[in-house]
């Protein structure tokens, strides 16, 4: 894995990772990670892709991983949702310059799935070959608006760059409730206890997001559900939704199906959905992750051969 940086605002650099196959590459996959994690955590998944001939890249979003500074500390999303999405797009542009003739696929997970959905309609001419949307969801607009109002009030009281136990509880506090006798506070991530324990032990994972980051993510989710934005997506882009059917972020499959149906209603011609029985939030870290690998690789073979 190669690491590099590119400079952004507020004296901060965005940290990036790149994995390159041993043989001549046949495509590029950009990973867009979730909240309170970082790109290098996807090393196992990236190696699955490099073993099948793909270059893999990913950036640590601002306030995540090694993309932090005194101006943008861990857990902060300074300068907003669209700026974070533009960082992902900048990495896309840089990688396309390096590999101009290779088909380009984007793979977004969790918060990264919502960022990917924003990228699809903000940059419809990005030249993507396909998109994979993992661990996504769909929430009633009234709930999202209420959440943003609560964040605004808490931010005024505490400061947007600070955390709020109340906001954190509202966002994540119910995620373990669907599981009997949870072993840890983050059992909702995966049934693989070793992966859960690794998550807990890593200081760069699972931190409380700032109030501002929470507000921005809820705003991004609102934008993603706007029909006018959905209609801007490139209609011929193949999209694969993947999720566990016991993932609370996707309302145990219900929210994922709503997103899938919204894409179809927007005129997307090739939208596919795979829900994995008993799978939780991080299917790429689940007990049956090889099933996910096989399905994603089959999807990639299909779109590349068209």
List the helices and strands and how they pair.
Layout: E1 2-7, E2 13-19, E3 27-32, H1 43-51, E4 54-59, H2 81-98, E5 104-109, H3 111-122, E6 130-134, H4 141-158, H5 165-172, H6 193-201, H7 211-224, H8 227-230, E7 239-244, H9 254-265, E8 271-276, H10 289-304
Parallel strand pairs: 3-4, 3-5, 5-6, 6-7, 7-8
Antiparallel strand pairs: 1-2, 2-4
Describe this structure in words.
With 306 residues, the protein is an alpha/beta fold. It has one domain (2-138, 216-304): Rossmann fold. It contains 10 helices and 8 strands. The protein has an 8-stranded mixed beta sheet, with helices on both faces. A hairpin with a 5-residue loop joins strand 1 and strand 2 (13-19). The longest helix has 18 residues, at 81-98. The protein starts with a strand and ends with a helix.
CATH class: Alpha Beta
**Structural class determined from secondary elements:** alpha/beta
Low-confidence segments: none
Q: Gap between N and C termini, in Å?
A: 30 Å
Number of DSSP E strands: 8
SSE succession: EEEHEHEHEHHHHHEHEH
CATH superfamily: Alpha/Beta hydrolase fold, catalytic domain
Percent of sequence in beta strands: 15-25%
Question: Reading side by side through the largest sheet, how are the strands ordered?
Answer: 1-2-4-3-5-6-7-8
Computed Rg: 18 Å
The pLDDT mean sits at 96
Shape: globular
CATH topology: Rossmann fold
Specify the oligomeric state: single chain
Largest sheet report:
8 strands, mixed
